[in-house]
User: Which sequence fits this backbone?
């Protein structure tokens, strides 16, 4: 799908929109790496890597603020309409989702540090790895669908969130069993639970990004289960 | 070589069909739309239930040249319809059909059905003077008469025989100036020439003059293009108030203005009516690629 964002009479406008999109995708790349690093740190008990994740977090917050500012400037200077307006709106919304993914990655990193300090490898790592892989792929595919303005792929990626939610619920049940079996493990398993929860939230944010792809291309707001709004 | 095995009239194999996207809209790249014939019929909703003005299959010619191609559109009662499009797209020509301002242009010919409250505008027995009292007009450049402010507004009611006594005229003048949001600024100098007012005031004077004869429809041809942003904001505010009592058609080059003042927007291109939709739809998610290209500034 070609949205012709490079065909304005004003070349400057083309460049403004292009750089807004590029900036958002760069932020997306950074956040995706954060998620991968956080999970890696947890799996390998690598507290150094976890510390790095916490540092980069600040950079991501700044990215969100920069994107907001640039989007605001485009609105002020160009009064974008139709697909241009939807592009700017979608970038603002996605930037917020990405920032929150960054927050969740930081939470995972903090759990990694806590779990490393405790020294023992608790149960639940398999589940974490599995869900982490799923949501990382979802996030990648969502951003990829945005790059290509690909509604079909966005819809497919969006649908995968249901499976993640199901996996999350079954992992939670399993963790509860562990806690019942061995109450001494409760505090450690709770950390695993928080991590699972963070990863599940990342899946939700990836889903939100997919919804913005549909909004950008089709002009339909399908958030909160309103898929019937698609023409 | 595969085609050789197909006899004439045989169905296209299913897989060939599947790979062809269903009715792909024309891409902006192919937008070198140069001839009106390349634009299919109007998309969106050109018609409405309570039409004040009803136009069907309107064609307008200037001599040999066709300026309007088969335009059908309703303008609803107490509605503001904005007409937008690049220069020379026919929007002003179309607007001028609605009160027969085109009659004064040599060689101009109008075909099709145009009616105001069901009465044919181009009917053989129609007298254009009362028609233009019912369908008033405000032009791009404020054009007050070289008379006093009072007489500018009182002139219409006098010649149309709406009022003759001084007291009646006084009332009409005050009312019209009040509605045009000009009364407080001019009430102490009604005997001064209208041409002495600022551009924005002159334009509001012209609007006061237009509403003094109690029209039903007001046509506005780029009423703010000669005004500064403050005067423009005043006129836009006024348009919204006037909508309570009048039906308004406005031609504008300012997309933001169309978005702000109108309920429906009509996009013209090469003399064709490309799209008519709710203003909200046109500016957030237009149906036609040409509309999208125009309002987002994508024309080469």
Assistant:
């Amino acid at each position: 799908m070609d949205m012709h964002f490079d065909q304005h009479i004003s070349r400057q406008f083309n460049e403004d929109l292009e750089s807004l999109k590029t900036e958002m995708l760069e932020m997306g790349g950074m956040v995706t790496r954060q998620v991968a690093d956080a999970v890696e740190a947890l799996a390998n008990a690598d507290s150094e890597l976890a510390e790095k994740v916490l540092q980069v977090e600040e950079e991501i917050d700044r990215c969100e603020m920069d994107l907001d500012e640039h989007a605001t400037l485009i609105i002020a200077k160009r009064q974008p309409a139709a697909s241009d307006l939807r592009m700017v709106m979608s970038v603002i919304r996605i930037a917020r989702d990405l920032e929150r993914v960054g927050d969740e990655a930081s939470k995972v990193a903090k759990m990694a540090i806590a779990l490393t300090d405790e020294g023992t490898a608790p149960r639940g790592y398999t589940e974490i790895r599995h869900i982490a892989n799923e949501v990382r792929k979802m996030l990648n595919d969502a951003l990829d669908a945005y790059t290509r303005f690909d509604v079909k792929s966005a819809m497919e990626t969006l649908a995968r969130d249901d499976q993640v939610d199901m996996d999350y619920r079954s992992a939670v049940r399993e963790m509860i069993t562990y806690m019942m079996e061995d109450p001494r493990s409760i505090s450690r398993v709770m950390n695993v639970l928080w991590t699972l929860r963070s990863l599940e939230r990342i899946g939700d944010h990836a889903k939100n990004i997919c919804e913005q792809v549909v909004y950008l291309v089709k002009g339909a707001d399908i958030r909160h289960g309103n898929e019937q709004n698609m023409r | 070589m595969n085609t050789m095995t197909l006899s004439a009239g045989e169905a296209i194999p299913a897989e060939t069909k599947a790979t062809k996207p269903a009715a792909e809209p024309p891409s902006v790249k192919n937008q070198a739309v140069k001839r009106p014939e390349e634009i299919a019929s109007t998309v969106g909703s050109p018609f409405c239930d309570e039409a004040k003005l009803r136009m069907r299959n309107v064609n307008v010619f200037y001599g040999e040249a066709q300026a309007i191609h088969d335009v059908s559109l309703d303008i609803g009662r107490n509605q503001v319809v904005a007409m937008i499009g690049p220069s020379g797209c026919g929007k002003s020509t179309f607007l001028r059909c609605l009160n027969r301002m085109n009659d004064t242009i040599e060689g101009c010919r109008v075909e099709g059905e145009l009616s105001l409250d069901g009465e044919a505008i181009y009917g053989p027995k129609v007298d254009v003077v009362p028609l233009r009292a019912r369908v008033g007009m405000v032009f791009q450049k404020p054009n007050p008469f070289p008379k006093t402010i009072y007489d500018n507004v009182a002139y219409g009611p006098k010649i149309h025989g709406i009022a003759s006594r001084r007291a009646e005229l006084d009332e009409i003048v005050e009312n019209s100036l009040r509605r045009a949001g000009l009364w407080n600024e001019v009430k102490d100098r009604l005997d001064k020439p209208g041409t002495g007012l600022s551009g924005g005031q002159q334009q509001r004077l012209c609007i006061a003059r237009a509403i003094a004869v109690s029209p039903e429809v007001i046509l506005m041809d780029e009423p703010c293009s000669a005004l500064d942003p403050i005067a423009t904001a005043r006129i836009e505010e006024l348009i919204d108030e006037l909508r309570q009592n009048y039906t308004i058609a406005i031609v504008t080059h300012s997309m933001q203005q169309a978005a702000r003042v109108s309920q429906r927007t009509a996009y013209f291109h090469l003399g064709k009516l490309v799209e008519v939709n709710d203003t909200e739809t046109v500016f957030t998610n237009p149906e036609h690629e040409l509309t999208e290209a125009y309002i987002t500034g994508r024309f080469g």
Residues 3 and 9 of chain B are 12 Å apart (CA to CA). Residues 31-295 of chain B form a domain with the Rossmann fold fold (CATH 3.40.50.300). DSSP finds eleven helices and eleven strands in chain B. The longest strand of chain B covers residues 51-62.
